[in-house]
Write a structure and sequence with these properties.
By secondary structure, this protein is α/β, with parallel strands linked by helices. It has a single domain (10-290), classed as Rossmann fold. Helices cover 41% and strands 12% of the residues. It has nine helices and nine strands. Strands 3-4-5-9-8 form a five-stranded parallel β-sheet, with helices on both faces. The protein has a two-stranded antiparallel sheet with strand order 1-2. A hairpin with a 2-residue loop joins β6 and β7 (194-195). Mean pLDDT is 95; it is low at 1-7.
Length: 291
């Protein structure tokens, strides 16, 4: 398949991901709460899915003016604590006003700490880790039964793979040959208490999913939109089995003092840190525009 990114080329996607990182930092800092590290590692995946196109068609079909559109594709953020990344994307698309980002985690606000279905554009309430792939399976199976062409995407965290339900769901995906399901692992190698390999090693992830009957596509730099789009193209060509895109990412990506540090898993930046991080990201944005 020939790549033809007509809605946004990969340069535009990189710029947008940088802009959305600023949104993530500002909304969590305003709330003084939220999961920064994993939101920054996963934002390139979400940007690619929601804004990228292949051969003139959106990767993930959606309609902000009609959230119940029957022809849409479906997305499950199984690692629901990375909700700030999803909220930044949905606001950018126009599912709700960007002003809502200022109310993150506030009492009675639309945008709580984890995604809930009352939010326009959210297809599954998540937060209890390990459940998202099961929900994605149900969506994919339903679409198959109805003979619909819609696709389902699911993003999991690597630490989340420590949950046993993930592997029950992985077995189910392969058994029912859900080739309309593409799952991602945001493989940033850290969880709240430290390195996944030290707490409960989940490697070798690729071999395990392949053993369950999945096609696995490894992305060496999961924060690079070019590599992510190439992986999605390959995934769309797989038949009679589900596909896992194993994306090696960096926790806290593009906030130098937070990169690869579990201490930034579930905390907002201080005002001083926010100023430093936003300054760097704005400078990066200008460099990307100049290329």
């Amino acid at each position: 398949m020939i790549l033809n990114i007509s809605k946004m080329d990969t340069k535009d996607l990189k710029q947008l991901a940088t802009k959305l990182r600023i949104d993530i930092l500002e909304m969590t800092s305003k709330a003084n709460s939220g999961h920064v590290g994993g939101s920054l590692s996963v934002i390139d995946i979400l940007t690619t899915l929601y804004f990228g196109e292949i051969d003139g068609k959106p990767i993930l079909k959606t309609d902000p003016k009609n959230p119940d559109w029957e022809q849409q594709d479906y997305f499950v953020l199984s690692k629901g604590h990375a909700a700030p990344a999803l909220y930044a994307v949905l606001a950018e698309l126009g599912f709700f006003s960007k002003e809502e980002l200022n109310n993150l985690r506030q009492v009675d606000s639309l945008l709580q700490g984890h995604p809930v279905r009352k939010i326009p554009g959210v297809h599954m309430t998540t937060g209890s880790l390990g459940q998202g792939l099961s929900a994605a399976n149900g969506m994919a199976m339903s679409l198959k039964l109805d003979k619909k062409p819609n696709r389902v995407y699911c993003v999991m965290g690597d630490g989340e793979l420590q949950e046993g339900q993930i592997w029950e769901a992985a077995m189910t995906s392969a058994h029912y040959k859900l080739d309309n399901l593409t799952a991602f692992v945001d493989n940033n190698k850290l969880q709240i208490d430290g390195f996944c390999s030290s707490i409960m090693n989940v490697e070798p992830i690729q071999n395990k999913f392949e053993g369950f009957g999945w096609k696995v596509i490894k992305v060496m730099d999961g924060n690079d939109t070019d590599q992510l789009i190439e992986a999605v193209v390959r995934a769309h060509n797989i038949t009679r089995q589900p596909t896992l895109i194993l994306a090696n990412t960096i926790k806290g990506k593009d906030v130098c003092f937070a990169e690869n540090k579990c201490s930034y898993h579930g905390v907002a930046l201080s005002p001083e840190e926010l100023t430093e991080a936003v300054k760097y990201l704005n400078e990066k944005l200008e460099k990307l525009k100049a290329v």
